[in-house]
Amino acid sequence: MLFPEIEPNEQGMLNVSPLHSIYWERSGNPNGLSVLIIHGGPGGGSSPSYRRYFDPKKFNIVQFDQRGCGRSTPHSELEENTTHHLIEDIEKIRQLLKIESWHVFGGSWGSTLSLIYAIQYTEKVLSLTLRGIFLCRQHELTWFYQKGASEIFSEEFDLYQSVIPLNERGNLINAFHKRLTSQDRSERTQAAHAWTRWEMSTSYLKPKEFSINKATNDNFSDSFARIECHYFINNIFLEENYILKNINKLKGIPVSIVQGRYDVVCPMRSAWDLNKALPTSKLYVIDNAGHSMKEIGISKRLIELTNELANSFSNL
Q1: pLDDT per residue over 123-135, tens digit each?
Q2: Global model pTM greater than 0.85
Q3: Distances in whole angstroms, Cα of residue 244 to Cα of each of 82, 178, 203, 241, 254
Q4: What is the Cα–Cα distance from 264 to 217, expressed in whole angstroms?
Q5: Phi and psi at residue 215, in whole multiples of 5°?
Q6: Residue ranges matching CATH 3.40.50.1820 in the chain
Q7: What is the homologous superfamily of the domain 10-137+237-314 according to CATH?
Q8: CA-to-CA distance for 105 and 303, rounded, in angstroms?
Q9: Which residues does the annotation mark as catalytic?
Q10: Cα angle: 36, vertex 40, 44; to 5 degrees
């Protein structure tokens, strides 16, 4: 279903502060429709496979690694790493590439950041294509990291919390944050592996070994776990329910939402609430899928949507 593999035709490092430099790239047709891909996590980093969701003859495909992850530097850095910083980084990339406005594509935390960027820079967003909606409300964090998903993937949840002493399990995000910011490298690594494995083992309707094995990559798991936990313990540095409170700003933007019915990481409720709050949006529920964009039904629908996007704008 995916388009053929392609390589970037332009890439670089953008200094966004005296501390941080972020990796960016673009591929496909430089004169095509500009689309920004926002990766998940936070701390997940971009992937070459994301390019394959867009017809390279029709799209100018832009990706970047958010602060502290992927090829951005310094690796796993938490200082000057907030939602506000990431939004401003996106704007700096747009200005660097001299793109007037663009389509935005994001899943999981990428959907969160896409929505926040569109709220704050509405005039720069032509459309939103979102997958695995995460609104980062407190009950969503509790569901996945404390109690909820634990009742479905019980064996994996026990592995996740096993690195935390019994007397600290009443608030697992706090307990992990303490260890992920520890000076004890062994303690930090153990916590990072456990945190990352938990998400990787629950991302598919049927768990995949190749996903679970990502947790054993020290470089990936350290930035993924540390940055995620850093954002979540700080409620992504925004007021509770920020997105739905500001949803009216998106009424003029076409929004497509693709959601796996059995997504345990970012449950269906968030996509449903977003669709209800934004009646102009279109919700596509994939009944035989979990969280990952690589689930067959999700991949198929996303490609259908990007093809429709290319066709609709080429006819204007």
Answers
A1: 999 999 999 999 9
A2: yes
A3: 20, 31, 25, 6, 16
A4: 23
A5: -65, -20
A6: 10-137+237-314
A7: Alpha/Beta hydrolase fold, catalytic domain (3.40.50.1820)
A8: 12
A9: 108, 263, 291
A10: 115
